[in-house]
Inverse folding.
């Protein structure tokens, strides 16, 4: 069955960057988009962007343009999301989800990123 | 891109039905039949409930149903059960390879 396994929790200082990984199994990695969604403490879901693992094409939400980079390593079926110039408001659980362009279906377990000095 | 509008909370008794609304614009919910719904229990990842306005993935009970009228989508949960108590989120395709989520609704059973 489909599994998405994400990297572990991270503690970063303001201004630093964080890179979260998402390893896929149980399906053909190149046939489904990878979406990145975050959830700040006590808040709702916020879409960051998506990646087409086959072509490498990515699109980020306007709010994150210039700060988020989405990549993949097809040899190990893993997608990555890097967020730069971190600030305290970026403290959140970051989820990857695979699916069609129009919606994720299966989700990773989430990766907590804490931004604090 | 502004978040879709959902009521912060709804409630119902076991066995009853509740409906959660999700209001967008003519650029997202109103433009595409690509509204999806997710259930999230505390501390857990979201769970996929509905795709394409009203399609249930395998394994999702038919107590969960979706619909759309204009720029407002709805999720109806019938025969409420205690385990349905959770947060619910709508999501819409918004064109140009982008998605937008709703603010979430807390369901109390």
């Amino acid at each position: 069955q489909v599994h998405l396994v994400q990297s572990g929790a991270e503690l970063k200082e303001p201004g630093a960057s964080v890179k979260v990984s998402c390893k896929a199994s149980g399906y053909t990695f190149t046939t489904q988009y990878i979406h990145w969604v975050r959830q700040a403490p006590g808040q709702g879901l916020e879409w960051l962007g998506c990646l087409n693992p086959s072509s490498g094409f990515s699109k980020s939400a306007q709010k994150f343009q210039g700060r988020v980079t989405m990549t993949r390593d097809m040899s190990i079926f893993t997608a990555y999301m890097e967020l730069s110039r971190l600030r305290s408001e970026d403290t959140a659980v970051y989820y990857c989800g695979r699916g069609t362009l129009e919606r994720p279906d299966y989700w990773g377990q989430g990766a907590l990123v804490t931004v604090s000095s | 891109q502004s978040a879709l509008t959902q009521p912060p909370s709804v409630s119902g008794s076991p066995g009853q039905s509740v409906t959660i609304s999700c209001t967008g614009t003519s650029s997202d919910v109103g433009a595409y039949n690509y509204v999806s719904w997710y259930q999230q229990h505390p501390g857990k990842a979201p769970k996929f409930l509905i795709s394409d306005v009203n399609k249930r993935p395998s394994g999702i009970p038919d107590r969960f149903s979706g619909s759309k009228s204009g720029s407002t989508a709805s999720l109806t949960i019938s025969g409420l059960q205690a385990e349905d108590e959770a947060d619910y989120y709508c999501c819409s395709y918004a064109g140009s390879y982008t998605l937008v989520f709703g603010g979430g609704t807390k369901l109390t059973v």
In short: The interface with chain A takes residues 1, 3, 32, 34, 36, 38, 40, 45-48, 51-52, 57, 87, 89, 91, 93, 96-104 of chain B (CB under 8 Å). The beta strands of chain B are 9-11, 18-23, 35-40, 47-50, 64-69, 72-77, 86-93, 99-101, 105-108.
